[in-house]
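ping. complex inputs:
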Amino acid sequence: MKRVVVEGSQWGDEGKGKITDYLSEKAKVVVRFQGGNNAGHTIVFGGKKYALRLIPSGIFHKNTVCVLASGMVISPAAFLEEVDVLKKAGFDTSKIMVSDRASVLFDYHKTLDGANEAQLKGAKIGTTGRGIGPCYTDKASRVGLRMGDLINKTSLQKRLKSALEFKNRELRSFNLPEVDFNSLYKECLKLGEKLKPFIANTAIYLQEQVKKGTKILFEGAQGAMLCLTYGTYPYVTSSSPMANSIPLSCGIPTNSVEYVLGIAKAYTTRVGEGPFPTELFGDFADELRERGHEYGTVTKRPRRIGWLDLNVLNHAAGISGINGWAVTLLDVLTGVDEIKVCTKYTFEGKDVTTIPATLEEYEQYKPHYITLKGWKEDISKVKSFEELPKNAQTYLKTIEKYTKVPIAMFSVGPDRTQTVVLHDPFAD
Ligand code: IMP
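pong. complex structure:
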């Protein structure tokens, strides 16, 4: 396969960074296609931990081109800061390309994100507070700026003026200070100078790479259940992390995507508000949270913890056509006597295996579990499926059985080396 997608299949934080890092070694181009610095990938290698927010994981591999595609929302300041950190750590940042059509995320988006959340009171979304929703809102309302505007003075002046008329009205409605055009304009000119070397028509670049048959990895952020259309709306992010959105967000033909690797954590986590049928509470949830270091990379919030939900995996697989699973954090379940897996829900006395459109309905779904025997053996050094304890094998096989999607890889620890690959999508 030439074009592979890493897609989160739950509520984000599935350990995509690690799998992306592994696959990006094989790709010539690595692309982020949606979201912004609400995402946070942690990659561990050589005894060091690196956190990425905006820049694709390909940055750690020499000669890999990293593309921030048109579907993204990018805070110029956050981007430049990340570039700086990476440069100082000795990584080559000259092969980063930022789409001229990607949306510019301003500080006022962050301010409005906070103000919107505060106004929602008890019905807060629990956003990352990075301004993602307000920035996508502006894109859809046609009052947003694109990265290309930052390097075209005439366009910048025109677009920023009309944006601020609209945005200042909104800020006023919250009794928040207005944004001064002149100072933001000057700031944008400076940012534009710094961003110029990165900004390009990435759609044309990617089209050329597709034609050439270059190996491209598409790195999804968040997860299917946070998809604006198919997630647990409104407790979702404001873009689509699903593979289906790649062609449009990157400006490449629909049939460009060849293989979708669904990343599924061996249990489930969620940050922010919203329904979560298999959620666990109490000591056991706390124990798993500590063992799995389940705290947000971006906001450090403790993640909510639950059993694996196969209905959720099937939901993602059905929409984006997942070809294989990468099951992550399997080692975190070591030592658990009995592991539960949700195979269906019950609602109004009936079995259900699909995710409903309304939260009001989903909140009433009761999980139905099968119970599998756990394992006690340390699996952190396992190098093949056969080396896994029988019960861990059964666990993985259960996922295959209920989703009818094969396990392509599994991960038994945070390090780069602790990934067992049964099927490498780029090797076909
Ligand atoms: P936003 O993307 O900041 O607007 O947040 C909307 C929802 O998506 C909230 O529930 C966030 O916690 C969640 N979210 C956004 N980004 C991530 C992520 O990278 N991992 C997990 N959850 C996320």
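Residues 12-13, 38-40, 125-128, 130, 132-133, 221-222, 226, 235, 237-238, 271-272 surround inosinic acid (CB under 6 Å).
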